[in-house]
Amino acid sequence: MTMTTSRATGASVQRADGYAKVTGAATYSTEWPLQNPAYAWPVLSTVARGAVRAVDDSAALAVPGVLAVLRPGAAPELQPADDPEMLILQHSRVDYRGQVVAAVVATSLEVARYASSLVRVDYTVEPHEVLIDPDSDELFTPTTAVGNPPASDKGDVDAALLAAPHVLDATYTTPPQHTSSMEPYACTAVWDGERELTLYNSDQGPAITAGTISALFGLPAGAVRIVADYIGGGFGAKAFVRSVPVLAAMAAKAVDRPVKVMATRQQMFSLAGHRGPTVQRVRLAADPSGRLVAIDHQAISHTSRHADFVEAAAAVSRSLYATPNLRTGHRAVRLDVPTPGPMRAPGIAPGLFALESAMDELAHQLGIDPVELRVRNDTDVDPSTGRPFSSRGLVECLREGAERFGWAGRDPAPRSGRQGDWLVGTGMAVSTFPVHMAPSTATALATVDGGFEVRVTAVDIGTGARTVLAQVAADELGVELDQVTLRVAHSDYGMAPFAGGSAGTASWGWAVVKAVRALRERLDQHGGVVPAEGLEVTVDTTADLAELSAYSRHSYGAQFAEVRVHVHTGELRVPRLYGVFAAGRILNPRTARSQLLGGMIFGLSMALHEDGVLDPVFGDFANHDFAGYHIAANADVADLRAHWIEEHDDELNPVGVKGIGELSNTGTAAAIANAVFHATGHRVRDLPITLERLRPGLRGEPVG
Amino acid sequence: MKPFTYQRPADPADAAELLLAQPDAVVLAGGTNLVDLMKLGVLQPGSLVDVSGFTSDRIEHRADGGVLIGAGVRNADLAGDLGVRQRFPVLAEALLAGASGQLRSMATTGGNLLQRTRCAYFQDVSKPCNKREPGSGCAAITGQHRDLGVIGTSDKCVATHPSDMAVALAALDAVVHLRRADGEQVGVPLSEFYLAPGDTPERETIVDRGDLVTGVELPPAPAGARMRYHKVRDRASFAFAVVSVAAVVVRAADGTLADVRIALGGVAPMPWRARVAEAALRGQRPEPAVLRAAAQAEFAAARPLPDNAFKVDLAIDLITATIADLGGLPR
């Protein structure tokens, strides 16, 4: 595979859109100047299970400025679709609390919001259930665990567990978590006649959304255009179409004028997908030297009544450590909750919390250093498929991380560190994420004035994609960065995957490289002179990806945490968190570091704070705002460092990247939980690590 | 948000008149809590009566060491006041432990005292709440109550008062200055300012319609007092207290506790003055067993719920450790 040469890539280039964002010049989805816009405000169900019996919209319609009330039976009709989360107002069924059951369209946001409070909805109410019972007889094995087979089984796990001298058997839980992007869902819908629709949408996948919305409204391909220039974060919640863009398009159709929809933070807790909770049993069997002879990882999660999205928590155990006997499985129970969705490192973030906590417990049980235990179980081939790894920087990350953190000489005894009223401990865990890539198109153009333009339906959700793709294009063209105009985020630019699975740069970058190389060939055919009409080449990487060789491809990392636990109160702080990562080529240290640090904070937040509390009586997330659902604040983050090792991997893609969007929020929670055990001698197996879970470990400590 | 009018009276008499004439009018000060509640539909006032035009925003230190804090003094200004930081450090610490820099720059002293609970059910109009809608029931008792009260609560309401500032004020024996609707000026000890929820959790303070909080007075701090605010919270900033303690301790020459005042946040419908523990400790040596027994005695009347029972133990540990530290020999 021919790699790109390096010039702009590898440099700490400033974000192409940084100035526009900081100064407010960047146009987000509901900020487009439009003639005469209206505003839609959803009415959300207040029962968790049942059906809408009647909607009384008379009081709402009487409010001056109200244009329409949409409700089941009085809303534009949609075509059938696989995902019921999109099919709003098409039927009276209520499958969770917080489902869209009506919407008010008005001339101002304030009027729409106020009038929505006057819509009276009567329900037929049925008993609901929102809490997982791990022993429920309604547990089922899903057909997939987010694209992974639901189960795997190699060797004889049960026999190995029986025969092994050391067995670790523990159950870990993680709660529902919410993506919590800074910008909630936001969409502006503009119809041009009955057959052309533009959605300015906060969207991780404009090309895919365009197809989805076209089908939903019975329009031909190309009739729907998605513009997603600036996105205030997504973390998975904006990867798949849910209610908001559909509502905007329906409302705009109903009132025949542009309509804006902006979700509130509170609404996001039911309108957006959440990460499903997990109950994970991990069993590790090891010989006295610490070599694993069996791994069994079984995970339970929930999904909604009307669609299956099952958090694939056990899948990570299939490819991480050498073991002859390896079994994983997923089961789920259907509850009266919103359909879960992808959230940064789906499956792997909660899965690694369990596996890497268990590895720490095993290390303690065996009296082996936790870093050494990981090294001893390193492998050259993927233990589930037998395929070689394209590259595996795990041990290098472990060694480098231990060195930078000052791991050597650590007293492994729990509760061996104390400074004043604070118990001090250290812990570590491994990070890993698979390399995903998907086919993409891209177009490269040369103009007669010597300029170049590249178009790709990438989207920059805050990652820096817009910046690094321009760096890739400039290098491939052999020109300065400012000679290339990179256009992204318009579905018109052609088929491309969404910003998800940490696959963006690899997938879009591959298409950009291919398009630019093709343009250069065309340019050569013209003797290096751009003809008056310019040159334009469009490429598609579908065939290229189909020829990928059979390697197992993953990125790796090691994270090291220091924690302090107040001996009297149980207050928990993380003064140091270091990560070292191996993720192929790093195109832009500035944006890469930002992503890696952001992921580590995401993981810290998962460890310490994030907890979607399902209310058994009402059936919703009771703590549906940021006062109740805590995410890490600046003060929670102290000495935070992200490093990476140089990794050259020819078996990836022409850009040489593995993807870094999700890697660094895996493993963090386990590193912190392991440090908490070291500090206190108390193992917390349930996230988040709250005061009430931690304080039982402080008992017996004299005061004063 | 329901449409409303905005009024800006020139003096307290005008404000009282507007409030008495309009049953659906409410006082607007910094707006940091009120505006949120209006967006959520929890409060739907017909009129906002903005009192910032005439409310004192001055901090007047007195020769005797006391201070009069205008009701309009912003939390940030009060926290930064040199005299407050020197004479009443527990108050400055409590203020800085609350909210965020942006909110502290808007929030006022009077508004802070009168802010509403952050109970998730009070703030969600789709669910019952006796405080918001008397007689509708308390959803928190059977629902998410981990952050709610363990003492001084009732079967009708288990909400907590969220203020940090008020906890420090309680420990400092603050007196709230009130202008009654008829113009009478009264001083009400903070310990009598808040009402127990009982069967009427919608009634939170002794403030009646037309009354205005005009200021807060602090008597001089006891000579030689050591004081501290320790807020235990789930994250390092921008979180309400799980449990907090404001403590003021005077140590006698013989090593006994000459004076000890303890107020708690996060545990009760009001800043909770731990009178039982104080009485048990006065004149005693601050030995761990004595401290713990006193703190436990305070919580003999606790009525925790399943998910917040840990707060009782936490409060006992926090009182014990804080008084041990303040009452012991200086480190």
Structure write-up:
Chain A: Keywords: Molybdenum, Oxidoreductase. Chain A: It comes from Goodfellowiella coeruleoviolacea. The complex is a heterodimer of chains A (704) and B (331). Chain A has three domains: 18-26 and 438-546, Aldehyde Oxidoreductase, domain 4; 38-127 and 182-233 and 238-271, Aldehyde oxidase/xanthine dehydrogenase, molybdopterin binding domain (Aldehyde Oxidoreductase, domain 4, 2-Layer Sandwich), CATH 3.30.365.10; 346-436 and 551-698, Aldehyde oxidase/xanthine dehydrogenase, molybdopterin binding domain (Aldehyde Oxidoreductase, domain 4, 2-Layer Sandwich), CATH 3.30.365.10. Chain A is 24% helix and 24% strand. Chain A contains 16 helices and 26 strands. In chain A, a hairpin with a 5-residue loop joins strand 20 (441-446) and strand 21 (452-455). Chain A starts with 17 loop residues before the first helix and ends in a 10-residue tail after the last helix. Chain B has a five-stranded antiparallel sheet with strand order 4-5-8-6-7. In chain B, strands 9-10-11-12 form a four-stranded antiparallel sheet, sandwiched between helices. In chain B, strands 1-3-2 form a three-stranded parallel sheet, with helices on one face. Helices cover 29% and strands 20% of the residues of chain B. Among the domains of chain B are: 5-48, Uridine Diphospho-n-acetylenolpyruvylglucosamine Reductase, domain 2 (2-Layer Sandwich); 226-327, Enolase-like, domain 1 (2-Layer Sandwich), CATH 3.30.390. In chain B, a hairpin with a 5-residue loop joins strand 10 (241-251) and strand 11 (257-265). Chain B is α+β, with helices and mostly antiparallel strands. Chain B has helices spanning 12-21, 34-39, 75-80, 82-87, 89-97, 101-106, 109-114, 165-171, 190-193, 275-281, 288-298, 310-327, and strands spanning 5-7, 25-28, 47-50, 59-61, 67-70, 175-179, 185-189, 212-218, 226-233, 241-251, 257-265, 272-273. The chains are: A alpha+beta (704), B alpha+beta (331). The interface between A and B is large, with 38 and 43 residues.
